[in-house]
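Table 4 source record.
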Amino acid sequence: MQSSSTREIKDEIQRKKVVLAYSGGLDTSVAIRWLEEVYGLDVVAVSINIGQPNDVESNIERARNIGAISAYAIDARKDFVENYIWPSLKANALYQGVYPLSTAIARPLIAKVLVDVARKEGAEYIAHGCTAKGNDQVRFDVSIGALAPDIQIIAPLREWVMTREAEIDYAIKEKIPIPVKKACPYSTDENLWGRSCECGILEDASREPPEESRRWTISPIKAPDTPTYVQIGFKEGIPISLDNEKLPPIELIERLNDIAGANGVGRIDHVEDRLIGIKSRETYECPAAVTLIKAHQALEGMVLTRDVLSYKKGAEQRFSELAYDGQWYSPLRDALNAFIDKTQEFVTGTVRVKLYKGSVDIVGRESPYSLYNKELATYAGGDSFDHTSARGFIYVWGLPLRTAALAHPSGQSNKVACCQEPSQGVEEPGKR
């Protein structure tokens, strides 16, 4: 049964256009037919290549067969890397310290592409296949609203409340081709920066994710028994080479996904806090992202001062929260990005990592801007540190505490008395 709001919109819009973010999966495939039947809209399907393994060309052919009046296949990988992945890497962006935001940072890019197509097609509506329980609905709606507040948004799965099984039944009944079966009810999302997998048995947070749910990483148990070493070159915070071979950004990420994934690196099993307040068990595979972030952090530790590193931690956390919460196009995210870019001025050099059975260990780093001085740090011959300066430094460093102790003697004596009180009344040894 249609809601009153649905009927009102349907009466208002007769054969107008809606641009649909079309992934080629179950939700957006049934959405094409639903938008036609319920709203009477002409659907323009847009399939965007951001590094997912499926063929966007076959996606748009499927969309046309289902009923879309036109379809676009857009390669946005370069834009994704340069304007979304690299800023996130510079920020060491990890939501709740764990998740590299692979899905989250793709949504504002997709929203931008949808708005561009909507302008070109003269469409008044944009639709997406997000549910009412997830984060992506917020990311799409907020991003579209920030870029094109005049365009209305339709989210079929928020209105047409159906279980995944019911959607499959509907697709079979309507003869809609879908790449999913009831026997394997996982919901996945993939792009250059990572793969997410949820639903099915994964919703039981007490169960170990089955190997069948993994695609990008080998089990650490089955990974090679000898470690793999990779040297990653950075220039101003951006990876530019693997093992001294300069590579285009897309190829670099793809190659590192293969290398790290073959060593079982990048598996994440996380109970995270969704924006709408639900705790959700999420599993991810992010081999390149995990490796690059750890290498980038190591290089920063060598070239940035302690104050910058400390202050940047807070900026990184806020950056990650904004990206996760769909605030990519917010003024605060822009301001944080400007600060983070400034910190990357000297983040240039190479980092050597050891990949072994699921682990990423930093085993070497060097930079022309290194703040590490062996002559100052060494305890061996060649030590250039002025040891006589330590006494004066400690005197000045501890001066505020000594001054406070002298000015507040009662407070200090109370602390001492407090510590001594439990010993009162205890018999001396041998008196019993």
